[in-house]
Amino acid sequence: MRLVEATAEYRDAFLDMACDFVQACNVRGERYAHALADFDGFLARLKRGRDASQLPPGRVPGVEFWLIAEAGLIIGTGRLRLSLTPQLEREAGHIGYDIRPSQRRRGHGTLLLKLLLEQAQNYGLSCVLLTCDTVNLASARIIEKNGGVYAGQVTSEESGELISRYWIELVNLHQGHAGT
Ligand SMILES: CC(C)(COP(=O)(O)OP(=O)(O)OC[C@H]1O[C@@H](n2cnc3c(N)ncnc32)[C@H](O)[C@@H]1OP(=O)(O)O)[C@@H](O)C(=O)NCCC(=O)NCCS
Q1: Where are the domains positioned within the chain?
Q2: What b-and-e string marks burial along 30-56, b requiring 16 or more CB atoms within 10 Å of the CB?
Q3: Which of 99, 130, 159 for a ligand 1 pocket mutation test, highest count of atoms within 8 Å of Cβ?
Q4: Does residue 180 surpass a pLDDT of 70?
């Protein structure tokens, strides 16, 4: 299993995964429906999203990664924000991730975050903020298994949902509990 930055090389595998999200009517389905409708445009937006000079005020640069199994199947995606605005620091944090619906509950989410934390370190971050809806027990567990230190809750200004916040110090990565 490996993590790669989003690339046209895995176009077919990505579209196959996007279908999985859309068919499952998943909460992330809308994002992937856009990618299915216009993969090149989707990839171009991701490319612009990495470059601070191409972003409007208030947007921070970020990198999208895909988790790929040996057979070339894309298992999930992750997004790393390279800095935080006050709003991101309150609610969304540095990292987001999704595992395709047909591949859940096999430990992939835990592995995906572990690999994303390594990338965050590669990109020069020393401490990252992770957040999840408090009701999202799977995501909370993934964060805790990757060394997340609970930093309390806030109520989302966007959804009204309770959000749990966690910090992970990347200098201690090698002591994390998540297996590979
Ligand atoms: C959250 C998500 C990433 C979990 O992925 P996954 O591959 O199923 O996670 P894992 O298999 O690594 O499971 C992690 C832990 O959560 C538990 N878990 C998984 N799904 C669960 C569920 N539906 N309810 C309760 N616990 C669950 C697992 O048992 C495991 O705990 P354990 O190690 O103590 O047994 C996936 O469900 C997803 O993509 N959801 C939609 C997007 C999302 O919520 N992203 C996170 C945003 S913060």
Answers
A1: 2-175
A2: eebeebeeebeebbeebeebbeeeeee
A3: 99
A4: no
